[in-house]
Amino acid sequence: MKPSSFYKNLMSGVSQMIPFVVAGGILISLAYVFDAASVGLETYGTNTVLAKFLYDTGQVAFMFMLPVFAGFIAFAIADRPGLVPGFVAGALAYTGGSSFLGALLGGFAAGYIIELLKKAFGFLPRSFAQIKPVLIFPLLSTLLIALIMLGINIFVTPMTNLLKDFLEDLSGTSAIIVGLIAGGMMAIDMGGPINKAAYVVGVASITGGTSSTLMAAVMAGGMTPPLGIALATLLFKDRFTRQQQIAGKSNWIMGATFITEGAIPYAAANPKKVIPAIVLGSALAGMISASLGVSVPAPHGGLFVVFIMENWWGFLIALTSGMSLTALLLKILLPKAHEENENQ
Questions:
Q1: Cα dihedral sign for 157, 160, 166, 167?
Q2: Of 79, 169, 187, 291, which residue has the fewest beta carbons closer than 10 angstroms?
Q3: Nearest-10 Cα torsion for 336, 338, 343, 344
Q4: Other CB atoms within 10 Å distance of the CB of residue 265
C-alpha cells in the first residue's frame, strides 16, 4: 500500500469521526458547567437533571467515535461493503479496550477483507450480483473481522492502556517536552501528514470525554501559525505585499477556529523563512500550554471552546506568546516586500 493511500484512507476515518468527538466533548463539558456545585464528587457531571442529560448525550456521541472512524477507513478502501465490518471493528475496539489504535487497525483490516472477498467470489455469475453485498459480504466479513479483533484486542489493549496512563500522568518536564514537540509538529506542514499525526494522537487522548493536556497543546500549536501571520501582517506591513496584507485578515478567523491551513500561502511563498518562524512559535505555544496544565475535552473549536478548558487562562497566554514569537521572527527573517519583488 502506498503511503499516500494509507494517509487518504486514514483521513477518511478521521474527518468523519471528528464531528462526533466535538459534539460529545462539548456536551460532556457543559454537563460539568451545569453541575459545578458538585466538584470533587465521583458523580460530578451527573447530579442535576440537566447535567445528566448533557453527560449521557455526550457519552452516546462518543460511543460512535470508534465505529465511525473504523467504518469510514474501510469505506475508503472497499466502498460501501466495507462499512459493515468497519463499524463492527470499531465497536469491538471500543468494547474490547484496544480503543483508537485497535479501531485504526480494525478499519484497515475490514477494508482489505472486503477486497479479498470480492476477488474470492468473483467467479459467481451475474445473477448473484445482488446477493453478494447484502448477504455474502456482510456475513463473512463480520465473522472474519470479529476473529481478527480478538487478536487485536489481546495484543493492543495493553499498549493502549500504557499510552493512556502516560498521557494522563503528563506533568512537569515530560508535559513540557511533549507539548513542545506536538505544538511544533502542527506547524511543520500545516495540515499535512505530520500535522495530522500529532492531531490524531491528540484526539486519541480524549477518548471517552477525558480532558487532555496533549490535545490542548496540539490545538494551541495548530492555531498559532495563522494567528502569528495575521499579527505580522498587521504590525509589520513592510514585510508583506498588499495582497498578503489583505489576506492576513482572514487568518484571524482561521486561526481563531483552529484552521492551520491559513498559513500555507505564506509558507509556500517563502518556505525557508516562514516555516521556521511558525514552527518555533507553535512549539512555544504548545510548551507553555502544557507547562501551565491547560487541558481540553474537545478536539476542535479553537477560541470557541476556551470556556470548557481547564486553566483556560494558560491557553490564552500560550497562544499570545506563540503568535507573538512567530510575528517577531517573520519581521526578522523576511526581507522587505519591495526588496523581495526586486530580487525576483
A1: negative
A2: 169
A3: 120
A4: 15
C-alpha cell at 124: 459467481
Q: Determine the residue type at 274.
A: V
Question: pLDDT, tens digit, for every residue of 103-150?
Answer: 999 999 999 999 999 998 888 777 777 888 888 899 999 999 999 999
**pLDDT at position 123, please?**
81
**Residue 7 clears pLDDT 80, i.e. is over it:** no
What is the 3-state secondary structure of the chain? CCHHHHHHHHHHHHHHHHHHHHHHHHHHHHHHHCCHHHCCCCCCCCCCHHHHHHHHHHHHHHHCHHHHHHHHHHHHHHCHHHHHHHHHHHHHHHHHCCHHHHHHHHHHHHHHHHHHHHHHCCCCCHHHCCHHHHHHHHHHHHHHHHHHHHHHHHHHHHHHHHHHHHHHCCCHHHHHHHHHHHHHHHHHCCCCHHHHHHHHHHHHCCCCCCCEHHHHHHHHHHHHHHHHHHHHHHHCHHHCCHHHHHHHHHHHHHHHCCCHHHHHHHHHHCHHHHHHHHHHHHHHHHHHHHHCCCEECCCCCHHHHHHHCECHHHHHHHHHHHHHHHHHHHHHHCCCHHHHHHHC
- Which has the higher per-residue pLDDT, 279 or 261? 279
Residue type present at position 4: S
pLDDT surpasses 50 at 343:
no
How far does Cα 263 stand from its chain's mean position? 18
pLDDT at residue 313 in the model: 94
> Going by C-beta distance under 8 Å and a sequence separation of 6 or more, which residues neighbour residue 67?
86, 87, 88, 90, 91, 94, 103
Cβ(191)–Cβ(261) below 8 Å:
yes
